[in-house]
Amino acid sequence: MRVLHEEAMSLAEAISIMSDNSLMCFGKIEDLMAERLLDNARILERMDYEGRLSEGILTDIAEQNDIYRIDVFGRDGRKVLSSQSQEDSDQSDSRSLIGRIAPLLDGIEDEMIIGLEEGEGERFVAGVRRRRGGAIVLNLDTEEILNLRKSMGIGDLIQDIGENEIVYRSTGDGAGDKD
């Protein structure tokens, strides 16, 4: 019984450490996604300020950097440029986002990490204030990240552990040896 208790305590500690490491890892992934989006947004804002931004450039940058969508909003919150055509762009996503980016539109914030947004799928969103007024907002598709999070989650770990059989054999001296 003492060996079983020690094994259970060791297993519980391993699960706790794995859970902490998993949370820390996903926090770091979100930080890296945010920094990646903000880096791209800063470059786009400079191009916008210099008058060199167009929908074609937005589309090229989105494709080259695996960004789901790039939207440029005017001061009034109206979308003025997008990397996706209006037919492809979900208008309800844009409307729900306007309230969240109000600090950028109003000039209160220079940069914002909006985080996960739900709509036609989950997106990770960040944006910067335009010097011309308005905001540039970038979206990453998070499907791969969410699938990774699910596959590495604590529930799967516990299920995997439960599926593995632990067998104890007697050594003949009354003590058990674990296989």
Could you explain the architecture of this structure?
The protein has 179 residues and is an alpha+beta fold. The chain has a single domain, classed as 2-Layer Sandwich (Beta-Lactamase), CATH 3.30.450.20. It is 51% helix and 21% strand. It has 6 helices and 7 strands. The strands form 2 sheets. A 5-stranded antiparallel β-sheet has the order 2-1-5-4-3. A two-stranded antiparallel ribbon has the order 6-7. A hairpin with a 3-residue loop joins β3 and β4 (122-129). The chain is elongated, with a radius of gyration of 24 Å. It starts with a helix and ends with a strand.
Task: Estimate the strand proportion.
Answer: 15-25%
Low-confidence parts, pLDDT < 50 over ≥5 residues?
Answer: none
Could you name the CATH topology? Beta-Lactamase
- Neighbour order of strands in the largest sheet: 2-1-5-4-3
What is the H-and-E element order?
HHEEHHEEEHHEE
Tally of helical runs: 6
State the helicity in percent bands. 40-55%
Features of the shown structure:
elongated; alpha+beta; 179 residues; 5-stranded antiparallel beta sheet; Beta-Lactamase; two-stranded antiparallel ribbon; 6 helices
Write the layout of secondary structure elements.
Elements: H1 2-49, H2 55-64, E1 69-73, E2 79-82, H3 91-100, H4 102-105, E3 111-118, E4 122-129, E5 135-141, H5 143-151, H6 154-163, E6 168-170, E7 176-178
Antiparallel strand pairs: 1-2, 1-5, 3-4, 4-5, 6-7
